[in-house]
Amino acid sequence: MTRLVPIGIAAQELGVHPMTLRRWEAEGRIDPPIRTQGGRRRYDLSKLRAIAPHKAPSTRATIAYARVSTSGQKDDLVRQVALLESYCATNGWSYEIISDVGSGLNYHKRGLKVLVSRICSGEVGRLVLSHKDRLLRFGSELVFSLCEHFGLEVIIINASEDSTFEEDLANDVLEIVTVFSVRLYGSHNHKNRQVMEQLQEVAKEVT
By the 8 A CB rule, do 9 and 47 touch? Predict the structure, then answer.
């Protein structure tokens, strides 16, 4: 039975960004979607699954990007990198790993700067993330727009694992307050640790 879905669900099914689907359509790599009376795209999931164009080889580099917010999350960073390495190796891609330790609100992280520079150089053909928010907490769409402009495929391994609105809100607030608390009290200040512990408890209650 044919199942027609919006672009967001189709992108999640393939683990890519919606802009990548639009580019594949423009390049003729996938059949044009059906249009509703309002002009919205509707994709046939069975055809997309059969084609799986995101597995096509690329002559340009594949970069996998991993990030955690604090040095206390180094174990999570190791797990992220292992997942990215396994995914890329399974698909037979030669790849590079770029990792960062820093807030998702920080646009000046060394790894992020290197990633954006490499994207703009035109030498990267594929960007792989474990989750969308590993790139940035806010502003990731700007980087995805750059990827679209320079013809990159964006693959989000866990794109289908949607968090709830409450979880996103709690994580966003925690990230914001963490940044300002560190600036106000310092990363090793006792009061800062108390604030973080209280916020984490609140976040657990919300989620």
Answer: no
